[in-house]
Design a protein that fits this description.
The complex is a heterodimer of chains A (678) and B (453). Helices cover 39% and strands 18% of the residues of chain A. Chain A is α+β, with helices and mostly antiparallel strands. Chain B contains 9 helices and 23 strands. In chain B, strands 9-6-10-12-13-14-17-18 form an 8-stranded mixed β-sheet, sandwiched between helices. A 5-stranded antiparallel β-sheet of chain B has the order 4-3-2-1-5, with no helix packed on it. Classes of the chains: A alpha+beta (678), B alpha/beta (453).
């Protein structure tokens, strides 16, 4: 196995898990970006909003017939089909369609057009007719048991901000599933507020780029959807599925990575996991394990533990459980850490590189498979024993009962009722067989620190068949032509546009874009000259008020816009913007709607706030007095006297006039003064 | 595009696997380059837009795409088997034979398959829902049935609900009779839900001296869906047929939107009240006669004793020259007159308590006087027909109509068909006396209050 040797070399060469060169491992990453759209749902006219209400509660059972999941093995199928009962909450924002008690309505025109616009922005080729498909889902999240999805465009591309070319394989328009609220694994509870919300799924071709570029690609792809102005905001409205493989490994899909910043870590950890599995498989293939050694042979070793001090086992046996064991031929050391494998050179604690040498891969995966197949908690393997109160003597006794070669073999032990234990150990043996082949293809769930755990085997394409309740939809040229006049910008394009239009720097523009404030800025900023006031309002005044607990959302854009105008024309000092808004909110809260027009309310507040202000003439008088008093300074420093004079003048005029205005007046008065002297 | 004489994709058989190249469609932006798709499956070549053939292809990732034929160039036909000829389309071979060796202790149940959603399966390649070909397929879809009873599945027809007619009712009745004669403890009839309540009424009038329950059951969602109600409906029907102490025709339906509890509805009191909900079939003007909760049966009627030795019989037949007319404000005298021409019997679905406008009463009277039998039912569905409250009702009575009590319009129709067919040449009085006889609880003695309608 050439691959495996190369993998070992790369792992050995690395100084830490963080600097392993993933591209030399043959890393390939496929990205799926999911982003929900706002408006109405895809197949009914319910609003795409989440609800705090439980609403009507009903329960359903899902049934999976063999044919729909040709890829599920019988045991897994058994697990799914043995009668999972799902509780659904249908809040008042939902209807019979989400409940799967009414056929779907035609797809939302808005969502469809947004999907076409985004596909066009990627320069995709398009289908001539859109056909919705039913994708079978086994977890109960869709009351129908499938997710409706349609492929709209294919073969597009995008250049990221950093200049990486990302090939887009396909763009699909699909419905989101119900929202998991709680419940145990076999009795989940879903709320249907999220079910049916349209979302775009954009799938890239395999990317052979550094993990950081994948993150950038995810952000830039998501941005284009966001910049249509039709995307939904809020928790869970955007998420990524990441397909990762290395050379000699296999495609594994890490589902639902929500935090963009985690993408590089997720990729790195998965690549290393696969590298370690490839290494293990190479080692195992050298152990000359025969096919017949891999037939599951269960041994009841309960009698070894009749007087055990292990609490886990003792408790399990009290409840009528048995301790059942299987031998894993050639597995000695493979279930534990990389450094513990017999083919590794001995290491001392100082040389252990975290994230490489101390990673346990197969042990936890085997235990997890056992647990997900049967629900048992007590799964132990010999590489981690003695431990959990299980003694060395007990381990040795089990080994001798299994007639195993302790220098070569390992065992896995389960404490559970007999039938459950068999289910668990059968799942173990399936995973063990896969270990010889290398990396199994799985759908995995991300863990908070960037790792992942098994969810289900990778589904094949057999899970999809046409949604006959929705007739195929023609996509005529005329429609595309019309929509092409209103395509969303890329991030780079939008930044440039914002910078030019509002005459602001890149950093400020990025903030405006990231906070989704471009539209607001457009609304409140009537001309380029006032943009600095508007930016200050949006990026500093309002965030500060938010921190102070003010309900900013109650301030309409027209008020913000009028405020910007007032500041821009000098009616209201810049420093007072926060003050004006606070008074506005207080006024609104106090009186309710008394029918007074908004602009009048604002005008009155601005007048109140600027009551203490003085006229330009008064201000000039004061400034002149200060200049005269500091005659020497002015003579000595000339123009540069401006700075030292600002302090004393501000002390006198603070709150009575806009600071910038004072500065301008001071400069004018200084000039006059100096000319008059000359 | 393509070489002269190159094969067109529409010349290939659906189900063929092939590699293709696709050139861009007309787009409002520049796009060059051809996209390759490998290992796609040709699904369909029959649709077209504006004279342009549109080809449906299944991509390797499972999605179907529909592309104009002239964009597609064949880049090699893969010589694998045609997948439409293989078992893939039906989702693998049926795994269970038509009768199952199961515990001899379990009660013998016959399932009579007549078609409808419950007895359909999906073609996973096209998505089209097809009726099952024979009863054994039902068992392959619902293998867990074998744990509840000894099953014998018989397919007597393969009709959608809307294609049922009185002829089919009789075929089903004969099959039920035969099943009991062959030793069934109970019989389950799988049936489309749309007209199931007609069939259940018909069987209620035809089948006498039942030795056990006859349970009609359908589903509102096809069995390809993991969420299908077919599984639980069939399970509850089989439980009812094998355990319930009942000697009548009943329908099993979801009690509410949840899976888990079903109601048992008397065959003459059922009606489909919703186009799509799982709990569409309700018991009208009479509470359900029982429920199935999980695997437990709760009956709410006076107990009966089942006699396996009872000789089941079929009584009567149906006259098809009966019609049903829904009265509305726009109906004219001429219109009604032409609808009634040649009819020997009619069920008038009147408004409110059973009313018909006075201009129409004359027309009815004319036809009643020539010998037509006229039964009055109500468009309200719920509540009793009463023709004594208003003068128009009294005028109807004067014209010689027969009010149908709390019967649904459908039950009244089936009852009238049955009464006319059964009376044969015995004349009008015999028909009326048969119609007024309470055979299967269709003449309710009272209308109890129920929450909601």
């Amino acid at each position: 196995m050439k691959d495996a040797k190369k993998v070992s070399e790369i792992l050995d060469r690395a100084r830490s898990w963080k600097d392993i060169d993933l591209l030399s491992l043959g890393l390939k990453v496929g990205l799926e970006v999911h982003r929900e759209l706002a408006g109405r749902k895809l197949f009914c006219s319910c609003p795409s909003v989440l609800s705090d209400e439980e609403g009507f509660i009903f329960r359903r059972r899902m049934h999976i017939t063999r044919s729909e999941t040709g890829d599920l093995d019988d045991a897994a199928l058994h697990e799914v089909s043995k009668g999972m009962t799902i509780t659904y909450q249908a809040p008042p924002t939902t209807c019979l369609v989400e409940m799967d008690d009414e056929p779907p309505y035609g797809p939302s025109k808005d969502a469809l057009e947004t999907s076409l616009k985004v596909a066009m922005k990627f320069g995709c080729d398009m289908v001539d007719r859109i056909q919705f498909m039913r994708k079978i889902v086994v977890d109960g999240s869709n009351p129908s048991g499938f997710q409706r999805t349609a492929l709209v465009g294919f073969d597009g591309f995008l250049f990221t901000e950093g200049g990486t070319r990302i090939e887009i394989e396909s763009l699909c328009l699909e419905e989101d599933s119900g929202r998991r609220i709680g419940g145990k694994d076999d009795r989940p509870v879903f709320r249907l507020d999220r079910a049916g919300i349209p979302e775009l799924e954009i799938t890239t071709r395999p990317l052979m780029v550094p993990p950081e570029s994948v993150k950038e690609a995810a952000m830039n792809i998501g941005d284009i959807i966001r910049f249509t102005g039709r995307s939904r905001r809020g928790l869970g409205s955007v998420r990524q599925d990441i397909n990762i493989s290395i050379e000699g490994g296999a495609r594994n899909e890490i589902k639902l990575v929500q935090d963009l910043s985690m993408i590089p870590v997720v990729i790195r950890k998965e690549a290393i996991r696969q590298a370690l599995l490839v290494e293990s498989s190479k080692y195992l293939s050298g152990m000359n394990v025969k096919e017949n050694e891999l037939a599951p042979e269960f041994h009841d070793v309960s009698s070894v533990f009749t007087s055990t001090v292990s609490k886990v086992i003792g408790r399990g046996m009290e409840k009528g459980g048995k301790v059942i064991c299987i031998r894993l031929p050639g597995f000695k050391g493979v279930l534990g850490r990389r450094m513990d494998r017999p083919d590794r050179i001995e290491m001392d604690d100082k040389t252990i590189r975290p994230g490489i040498d101390d990673v346990r891969v197969l042990g936890p995966e085997i235990a997890f498979r056992a647990r997900s197949a049967s629900g048992v908690k007590g799964v132990f393997h010999s590489d981690e024993l003695p431990s959990y109160g299980i003694s060395k003597e007990e381990v040795e006794e089990v080994a001798s009962r299994l007639e195993m070669d302790v220098s070569r073999d390992a065992f896995v032990m389960v404490c559970a009722p007999e039938k459950t234990a068999y289910l668990a150990l059968e799942a173990v043996m399936r995973r063990v067989k896969e270990a010889f082949l290398g990396v199994p293809s799985e759908v995995r769930r991300p863990l908070p620190e960037g790792g992942s755990e098994f969810m289900r085997p990778m589904p094949g394409s057999a899970r999809m068949y046409p949604e006959t309740d929705i007739p195929p939809l023609d996509i005529p040229y005329e429609l595309l032509n019309e929509l092409s006049r209103d395509l969303p910008p890329t991030r780079t394009e939008l930044l440039e546009n914002v910078m030019n239009r509002f005459r602001i720097g890149k950093e400020t523009a990025s903030q405006i874009v990231d906070l989704d404030l471009v539209g607001t800025l457009e609304n409140i900023c009537n001309d380029g000259s006032s943009s600095s006031i508007a930016v200050r309002l949006l990026l500093s005044v309002i965030p500060e008020m938010k921190k102070g607990g003010y309900d900013i959302d109650r301030i309409p854009n027209e008020i913000l816009s009028a405020l910007v105008d007032n500041v821009s024309s000098g009616k209201c000092p810049r420093e007072c913007m926060g003050d004006v808004l606070v008074r506005y909110l207080e006024r609104r809260a106090g009186t309710g709607d008394d029918g007074e027009p908004e602009y009048l309310i604002l005008e009155r507040i601005v007048n109140d706030v600027s009551k203490g202000m003085i006229s330009e003439k008064e201000a000039r008088d004061i400034i002149r007095k200060v200049i005269t008093a500091r005659e020497n300074l002015v003579r000595e420093k000339g123009e540069r006297a401006h700075a030292p004079l600002m302090g004393p003048i501000m002390n006198l005029l603070k709150g009575k006039m806009d600071g910038r205005r004072i500065s301008i007046l001071l400069r004018e008065e200084l000039d006059k003064h100096r000319t008059s002297i000359e | 595009m393509g070489l002269p004489g190159a094969r067109k994709i529409s010349d290939l058989n659906p189900g063929t696997r092939l590699n293709i190249k696709v050139k861009p469609r007309d787009l409002p932006y520049d796009r060059s380059g051809v996209v390759q798709f490998r290992n796609v499956i040709l699904m369909d070549t029959s649709s077209s837009v504006k004279g342009e053939k549109v080809i449906t292809l299944k991509l390797e990732n499972g999605y179907n795409v529909m592309l104009d034929e002239e964009r597609i160039r064949i880049d090699g036909v893969l010589d694998d088997e045609n997948i439409f000829d293989s078992e893939i389309r039906d989702g693998g071979p049926a795994r269970t034979p038509s009768s199952v060796d199961s515990d001899e202790e379990l009660p013998p149940i016959t399932i009579i398959s007549t078609g409808g959603t419950i007895a359909s399966r999906v073609d996973y390649t096209t998505g089209a829902v097809h009726p099952v070909k024979d009863g054994s397929e039902i068992l392959s879809i619902y293998p867990s049935m074998a744990n509840l009873c000894r099953l014998d599945v018989r397919t007597v027809m393969n009709e959608l609900s809307e294609d049922m007619s009185p002829r089919e009712w009789v075929v089903i009745a004969r099959a039920v009779k035969k099943a009991f004669k062959d030793g069934a403890r109970g019989v389950v009839v799988t049936h489309g839900t749309d007209t199931m309540h007609f069939t259940s009424s018909a069987l209620s009038f035809l089948l006498r001296d039942l030795p056990g329950p006859v349970v009609l059951v359908g589903s509102q969602r096809s069995s390809d869906r993991p969420s299908s109600d077919a599984f639980i409906n069939l399970e509850h029907a089989v439980i009812t047929a094998s355990r319930a102490v009942l000697d009548r025709v009943v329908i099993i339906s979801h009690e509410g939107p949840s899976d888990g509890t079903s109601i048992i509805i008397s065959g003459t009191r059922a009606r489909k009240m919703h186009t799509s909900r799982r709990d569409a079939i309700r018991s009208i003007d009479s509470p359900p006669i029982g429920r199935v909760v999980g695997k437990r049966i709760e009956l709410d009627i006076p107990p009966v004793r089942l006699d396996p030795a009872r000789k089941i019989s079929i009584v009567g037949r149906f006259d098809r020259t009966v019609d049903m007319i829904f009265i509305h404000p726009g109906i004219s005298q001429e219109g009604l007159d032409s609808m009634l021409k040649g009819k020997k019997g009619v069920v008038i679905v009147g408004s409110g308590l059973g009313h018909v406008g006075k201009r129409l009463i004359k027309v009815l009277k004319k036809h009643i006087d020539r010998g037509m039998i006229c039964v009055i039912s109500s468009a309200c569905i719920h509540g009793r027909v009463d023709l004594n409250v208003y003068s128009s009702g009294r005028n109807l009575i004067g014209a010689g109509v027969i009010p149908s009590g709390t019967m649904t319009p459908e039950t009244a129709l089936v009852k009238l068909m049955w009464a006319m067919g059964t009376a044969g040449s015995e004349g009008k009085d015999r028909i009326i006396s048969l119609f007024k006889e309470d055979i299967a609880g269709e003449w309710g003695s009272s209308t109890p209050f129920s929450e909601g309608l």
